[in-house]
Amino acid sequence: MNIFRLAGDMTHLISVLVLLLKIYATKSCSGISLKTQELYAMVFVARYLDLFTDYISFYNTVMKIVFILSSLAIVWCMRMHRVVKRSYDKELDTFRHNILIVVCFGVAVIINEKFTLREVFWAFSIYLEAVAILPQLVLLQRSGNVDNLTGQYVFLLGGYRAFYILNWIYRYFVEQRFSRWISAISGLIQTALYADFFYYYFLSWKNNAKLHLPA
Amino acid sequence: SSQGELHDEL
């Protein structure tokens, strides 16, 4: 494992902790898209089916369990928690995320490394992860003002993707090992989706102003 | 990146 991969994983982990902290400390999930969180829960469950069949390392196993449990916990809080669910911006979270699920599954059935249950679900999870942030970005854009923790959460998620791209470049040139092209292309698309958000995030940071996304 | 290789990334 190289430094970029580790930095990516840690940024991802911190993003989840920031989100959990926001929900726990403020007892509020305002600004957070339940649809994006449901997509992430689906991404991790579909991808980590190999938890029971392949052992890679203690690190991988622990991280997989953490990502599955934390994403399910967030969905549970937003749907079931007596106090937290009241702050959910349901009327702003209108992205038709079911379409993403159907399209990604369709693409995974056609484009995969091997037509087996595990590989199709793996490809599905990669495609779905690439677009899972869309409901969240739409919600932020609709609400206009973004609170600090939500802004940091999305920024860290984007940072995780950026580190993964550096990791693939490093692996290609230094380790002479190319990561799977399905991940690489999906990863590039996923990171590109953050470009607009990053632009406004840096602008607000530079001007020391509250993050505001134009409609 | 041959087929059947383990998915070692998260």
TrEMBL record, chain A:
Keywords: Endoplasmic reticulum, ER-Golgi transport, Membrane, Protein transport, Receptor, Transmembrane, Transmembrane helix, Transport. It is a multi-pass membrane protein. It comes from the Eukaryota. It is found in: Endoplasmic reticulum membrane. GO terms for biological process: protein retention in ER lumen; protein transport; vesicle-mediated transport. One of its GO terms (molecular function) is ER retention sequence binding. The chain crosses the membrane at residues 55-77, 121-140, 152-170, 182-202. Pfam families: ER_lumen_recept. GO terms for cellular component: endoplasmic reticulum membrane. Belongs to the ERD2 family. This is ER lumen protein-retaining receptor. It comes from Aquilegia coerulea (Rocky mountain columbine).
